[in-house]
Amino acid sequence: MENIGKTIKNNLRQYAMLIALVVIMIFFQIATGGILLYPMNVTNLVLQNSYVLILAIGMTLCILTGGNIDLSVGSVVAFVGAVSGTLMIDMKMPMFPALLITLAVGLIIGIWQGFWIAYVRIPAFIVTLAGMLIFRGLTNTILRGLTLAPYPKEYQVISGGFIPDFLNFFGAGFNVTTIVVGIVFSLLYVIMAIKKRKERAGYGFENSPTLFFIIQAIIVVCGIMLLSYWLSAYKGIPVIFVIIATLVAGYTVFTQNTAPGRYIYAMGGNEKAARLSGVNTNKVLFFTYVNMAVLATIAGISFSSRINSASPVAGQNFELDAIAACFIGGASVTGGVGTVIGAIIGALVMGVLNNGMSIMGVGIDMQMTIKGLVLLIAVAFDVISKRKSRG
Amino acid sequence: MGTILEMRNITKIFPGVKALDNVNFEVEAGEIHALVGENGAGKSTLMNVLSGIYPYGTYSGEIVFDGKVCAFRDVKDSEKVGIAIIHQELALQPYMSIAENLFLGNERQKRGFIDWNRTQLEARELLKKVRLNENAQTLVKDIGVGKQQLVEIAKALAKKVKLLILDEPTAALNDEDSNNLLNLILELKKDGITCILISHKLNEILKVADSITILRDGATIETLKVGVDVIDEDRIIKGMVGRTLVNRFPKREPKIGDVVFEVRDWNVYHPLIPDRQVIKNVNIKVRRGEVVGISGLMGAGRTEFAMSIFGKAYGTRISGQIFKDGKPVQFNTVRDAIDHGVSYLTEDRKSAGLILIDDIRHNITLPSLKKISKRSFIDQNREILVAEEYRSKLDIKSSSILQKTGNLSGGNQQKVVLSRWIFSRPDVLILDEPTRGIDVGAKYEIYTIINQLADEGKSIIFISSELPEILGICDRIYVMNDGRIVGELTREEASSESIMKCIMQSNREVS
């Protein structure tokens, strides 16, 4: 038992924000009289926050390289919306070539900003502040200050569509595919986790206590199954959810299990040391910003698809939401510490706060104040607990 | 004159470590009292207790200053009674003028506004007192370290200091600046200022100190009085390490093979001042299984030379040729050098070596991730095995391979960096000041590792400012001065005298 207590204590910091998220959800579930976790609202939560989730992934990498942030992502979201809108609505271009061109534009934006940041070494703060102005300005130029709408039907599917229920042979009243997918992923998780434990045991490494492992597995499986229940009770799995899940999984593996991912952490931890260990830190910084712009483009596509228009005021303050999500999720202001999962949890905390307060009828003014306080408290908690652990 | 300071039974405990154990420390008024001991002996901790950096209540024991029992809550409290501490890392604001720095936190004011005339006037007086011939308006970033040190002392004088604590004041100074500083301390003594001097340089201590207190493992060993006790370096060293050092260097039978690595006609220019040549026509050769030393004074260009070889990590307009196993090679990036089997261990492990916020494991594998990857994914189990292997092989004292390197002692940090470069499996390993700032025991361990590597057939280039260790472990020594190789000595020819002679001769030729 003593062993389990120790393991829990060791992992507490890591799970602190996750626990906070659950507490916040329970609070709003009660305060809104059960509306928060109403199946339709859970789906809405995912759809509403899709853009922050995508941006937070890229922002995490930027922050990891040394506390660099990207202030331009909100403007880039608007700009790529303007590009895709002009191509598809004005010029009636089919969706796939239009999407490819839009992504290419995002890539070029990334190369542009990455060049100034990584090779000319102008602080990212300045370059992206300039980008914030430049791309907002260009958005207005392209759109001539007007809003373009509506997009073709197939484009709206990106953030409004759902995976068809092709496994529902019996005409069940819920989305069978979603439940099946949930079961498959639960099984996959359990199998992988057991395999990993066996491997570690085979090497003679210490594993967490079995009881702890079982509790952990039960919590994860319950989480997956709850989510699939909620989604299945409404319309099933949103297309954008699949995109986000793939991105989160991909970037988690990239940051944790590949050499370039490790180089990002190393650079943020000590750039000089990283360089003397053979890490090309300019290249790391360059590709981090190229990547950020591409993810901002994906966020821009998903956002314009969701509001079904290309608007000159789209994406305002998105950069701040994404940055806040990363820091709430435990990223260090000086770089080298933080995870993609953490940023996702941070973004969900903000999302649930937004959604819950809206349902309760709290005004936008109070919402902003409360979100600001949450950001401050989360980072303060992190700073203070770090200081304590140092003794 | 009587006692000005008495620290009685001071005990300070950090989580898991007793840094000070019942230390008694007594300073006479008007004397220069040297405090010596190995790294980690507790000198800095004791001074931090005295100056209030560790506030009253976080330690046990009693401080009596000027006849009064003191309970300092912070540095301000100790300054109020006249204690000032000058740390190794200077605490000046580079973008402020000397005058502004002198009165920082102690501003000369008139009705809530800064009185600039008085500031200037008093600054000029203070600078005269420390014999610093600079305009008080000059920005601190524009004067050298030696002068900055004087500004720090003047700043202490501005606070009407009675007891001045200097922590390694000459560590970063050249001989001339060091001498000036020591003379100034003697001068201040005449004005009645008491001084505690922490230093590793025993010759300096013997020159100025009136008493010497030796600390070891957080306890006072003895206090020696000049004129009462017989004092020489051997006696002090014996007190510091608790034994006479017979075998400071492990023995090795060199088995030297063919030339593995050669640098020819190497020229490097300063990265910021492009017409200043830092390295001039350097030629060196290293053989298999050989430990080759590069000796020289601070600023001779040794680090610059090593880093410029290591994938042009330093300098511009680099010219010359590198040969590895007889074939010409080009290192345009650090990666190139590592991939060709040349590794470089930096002299500055904290700021350029380790990632202090990351753990031992990741620090060891950083340059060699390819070795532990399968299809471009890192095999984390193998990574753990590697880290565990080096942790036990080099005896890195730590709670586990997941411990953050920032929490390790200097010696163990150095072993982590060494592990990193040994795991990169180099043929040529350049070690730049590998024993700087680590204690005698850990030094010995590092020498042993170097010997083992040489026995395995690696070639070692060993850069050090400490003559005894260069003489103790190298098979051959290059002497460097002002960017040139000014001498090459075999183990038999080499001695402190012969090395210094090479340097002095070359200085004469230049001037």
Q: What features would you describe in this structure?
A:
The complex is a heterodimer of chains A (391) and B (511). With 391 residues, chain A is mostly helical. Chain A has a single domain (2-161, 238-390), classed as Orthogonal Bundle (ABC transporter involved in vitamin B12 uptake, BtuC). Chain A contains 15 helices and no strands. Chain A is globular and about 60 Å long. Chain B has 511 residues and is of the alpha/beta class. Chain B has 3 domains: 3-241, P-loop containing nucleotide triphosphate hydrolases (Rossmann fold, 3-Layer(aba) Sandwich); 247-341 and 426-511, P-loop containing nucleotide triphosphate hydrolases (Rossmann fold, 3-Layer(aba) Sandwich); 354-425, no CATH class. Chain B has 17 helices and 24 strands. In chain B, the strands form 6 sheets. In chain B, strands 6-9-10-3-11-12 form a 6-stranded mixed beta sheet, sandwiched between helices. Chain B has a 6-stranded mixed beta sheet with strand order 18-21-22-15-23-24, sandwiched between helices. In chain B, strand 4 and strand 5 (68-70) form a beta hairpin. The chains are: A mainly alpha (391), B alpha/beta (511). At the A-B interface, helix 7, helix 10 and helix 11 of A face helix 10, helix 11, strand 20 and helix 13 of B.
Index terms:
heterodimer; A: 391 residues; B: Rossmann fold; 3 domains; 27% strand; globular
CATH topology of chain A: ABC transporter involved in vitamin B12 uptake, BtuC
CATH architecture identity of chain A: Orthogonal Bundle
Helix content of chain A: over 70%
Give me the secondary-structure category of chain B.
alpha/beta
**CATH topology category name of the largest domain in chain B:** Rossmann fold
Helix content of chain B: 25-40%
Q: Summarize the main sheet of chain A.
A: none
